[in-house]
Amino acid sequence: MLVLTVVLVMSLGGGDDEGGGGAVSPAPTGTRPTDTKAAEAEARAVATRVALTPPDWGPGFARHTPYEVDPAPESLVRENCEFASRPSRIGTLASLLRNVTETATGIAGTSEVKVFADDATAQRYLADARDNIHRCPEQFRGKERWNDVREASPPELPGFDELVAEEGRQVVTAKGAKVNDVYVIATGRDGRNVLSAYVVGKADLDAQIRKYATDTLRKMHQRLGQQPEAAAGR
Q1: Partner of 91 for a Cys bridge, out of 63, 121, 208, 233, CB 3.0 to 4.6 A?
Q2: What does the domain layout of the chain look like in residue ranges?
């Protein structure tokens, strides 16, 4: 079984600006409620409803520990190609992820929802994500090793303002064991909301991994469209 850590999304987020969880920068009039606490509570309510639970992934999926991370940190790739994490940037209203695993195959997945104070902050976040993808084709964290990290063609899903996809291969686990696992990250931005689906599993399950990533992103986006708070903040 694949061992997942708190930070599952390989290269989403990052950049050089230092942020702190829950800190909010000024936003254009009309993009969010003027009361910061109310805006954060509203954003977290959206994230809680949009992030998928095991039944949403399909039969055979169960919670993976840690199941829910709130607030979820941002991931980044340092100049020396080390994969790391940091607190959410200023302007992040909510950042929540949920981890699951498919018992039969060992496929592991994460659905993540980030709600920002305004579109501009969400755009910068996604731009940093793309920069991280291109920073290092080979990355490490402790004993873990990934290679062939690259930007891929995103799934063709309507309704997003931006779509980004990343693919790669994990070749060494945190315990130093050699593996041949592939991962796919599909990320979409709709206004100030950024949704990400991360799926990883054995290389021979590549087609199923891609399908899960696409289906998860699609389901989250459908749920986002059903949230009146999200619509008001677009």
Answers
A1: 121
A2: 36-232
